[in-house]
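Summarise this fold before class:
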Amino acid sequence: MLIQNKKIAIVGGGPAGLTLGRLLQMQNAEVKVYERDVDRNVRVQGSTLDLHEGTGLEAMKRAGLLGEFYQHHRPLASKMQLVDKGLNIKFDDHNFAEITAEGRPEIDRAPLRNILLNSLEPDTVVWDSHFVEMEKKDHGWLLHFKNGKSVYADLVIAADGANSKIRPYLSDIKPIYSGITLIEGNIYQAHKNTPNLFGFAKGGKVMAFDNEQFIGYGTKADDSIMFVACFKCQENWLKESDIDFKNKAQVLAFFKKEFAGWSEDWQEFFTNDEVHFIPRPQYYFPFNQTWETQENLTMIGDAAHRMPPFAGEGANVAMQDSFELAEVLTSTKFADIKTAIAHFEKDMITRGAAATKDTLENTERMFSAAGLEQMISFFNQVQS
């Protein structure tokens, strides 16, 4: 095996990094996952994930975790309502939950992470490991972390997300702004803090389109809600707006102005005591990106092919990266690690570009003047 007696460092303990760690350990590889979170008890934010056949679900199958996945997936999360800015229902979830539960079952991020963590050997994940920099040493890398610790690895795999600090060691290609910025909000004890919008979702998700804008949210099993308010703006809007996103009054004022004409019912998201906001300009990497393959370094997931979240492809493509990379690294058909990685990266770039293209096409539909009508038509086609 190419990676026999090699120390492998995966930087980033999201779905892709943990899945890769599991798959490599199944082949007796020596692997550590370095994660910036202090410990596994840190709250896992982010939307519910729908795993797709051939990608996310295939990864869980190869990892021997499909049974556990189905014990924790949430069929109710697939319930879908499309509404206008006045919260008037234009499409209900008739049959949609059943359809997606078969081919794209949903799971909250926290139980998915726990399934993957529990599948790893003890002490595989090294918590409180915030990557700072690394330098070449021998045939590998010496990694340095914010906590002052340093470790050596023969092979480093960047799974550290859209703002990867390791990616620059491979590529200087910069991401392209999509034209869309979103404000993410996370609310805990949602049944108490946002009772009306929580109840309106009926345990599922709500997507609202109007005026080339989008608000979407979903409830989770831990009684939390993640919502996004998305709009078109210039790339430098975040800097020029000078909004303090820890100041709820400032964020509410922004929402009232930017989403003028939307029902006041939406303001429940912005006026409760438990909401936390994160502004996220949306970027993607060019379709034709390339970089020179290295024998001791590669990347997967958003680090390699970040894209907006408007087609549900990011986590799925990332998890496919994990099983495709694990396969080439444990294969006997390649002469050396660099050849194996080159094969993986060529295929990954192609797959990532295709997913990004699909995502951008869906983004254009969602944020068009007729976004609601186009999305209703899209979901009606899914049902038929």
